[in-house]
Amino acid sequence: MQQHRLVDQQFGQVAQAYLTSAVHAQGADLDALAALAQSVPHAKVLDLGCGGGHVSFAMAPHVAAIVAYDLSEDMLGVVAAEAARRGLTQLRTQAGRAEALSFDDGAFDIVATRFSAHHWYDVRKGLAEARRVLKPGGKLVIVDIVAPEAPLLDTLLQTAEVLRDASHVRDYRVSEWQAMLAEAGFQPGTPRTWKLTMAFDSWIARIRTPQVRADAIRHLFDHAADEARAYFAVAPDHSFAIDAMMIEAV
Fold first, then answer.
1. Per residue in 97-136, pLDDT tens?
2. Would you kindly state where each structural domain of the chain is located, as residue ranges?
3. DSSP assignment letter at 147
């Protein structure tokens, strides 16, 4: 199955779970995105890989227009219904791939993507497209899970992620993000990082991980090196902590 179809299949069936997910629906990064929207009068914004729509909901009250863009039509249906419930008339939805944006050059003041890029088939193409659709001086904001720089820790994280969700591609390291942004013609700012605690049972339930894969993750964590278990703060119930990053680029 092609990657974009796999992503659509994985997330279309669990769209409502991502709307209500506490991990996705809250965070200081959403407050920062709302503040950014307020700082750009009459901004036009693209929420790239919108998922449950939380970036769009945070920014929409402060902008002229925002497009919630995602592969999954089912996810977009949930976002559109919630936007209507909230009275967010500035928000519209559109389906498509990050690597092939159907917008004119320089169409947006801000492009924001949150917890999406680790599913993209080709991040470099996605970044090139983001740059194309931004106005000169426009801003790209990326929020995502990031891998540790140490290979041991990186490998453990990617293995757990793909076992949980077959559509996972890669959690990139901060250094990889900085290099890819520069390569795409952006000037990346200083990244902000923090820890996210993932409650194991809700983490696997949200994406409907099959039992055999969930058990494999438990086994993986149980038999990981001590330094890896310590880094990810693996708890007795297999809940754990991962790194998240927010980086702005002009």
1. 999 999 999 999 999 999 999 999 999 999 999 999 999 9
2. 3-147+168-193+244-249
3. B
| Residues near 84 by beta carbon (within 8 Å), at least 6 away in sequence | none
Q: Above 80 in pLDDT, residue 8?
A: no
Look up residue 238 and give its two tokens: 């297999």
Question: Token pair of 183, please?
Answer: 């390569």
Spatial CB neighbours of 118, under 8 Å, sequence gap ≥ 6: 144, 145, 161, 168, 169, 170, 171, 172
Enumerate the H helices of 87-224 as residue ranges: 123-133, 151-164, 174-183, 200-206, 211-222
* Sheet with 192-198, edge to edge strand ranges: 91-95, 65-70, 44-48, 108-114, 134-146, 240-249, 192-198
Residue 144 exposure: Cα atoms within 13 Å on the Cβ side: 28
pTM of the model: 0.90
The HSE-up count of residue 139 (CA atoms within 13 Å, CB side) is: 16
User: Other CB atoms closer than 10 Å to residue 35's CB: what's the count?
Assistant: 12
* Homologous superfamily of domain range 3-147+168-193+244-249: Vaccinia Virus protein VP39 (3.40.50.150)
Can you tell me the distance from the alpha carbon of 127 to that of 67, in angstroms, rounded to the nearest whole number?
17
Nearest 5°: phi and psi at 181?
-65, -45
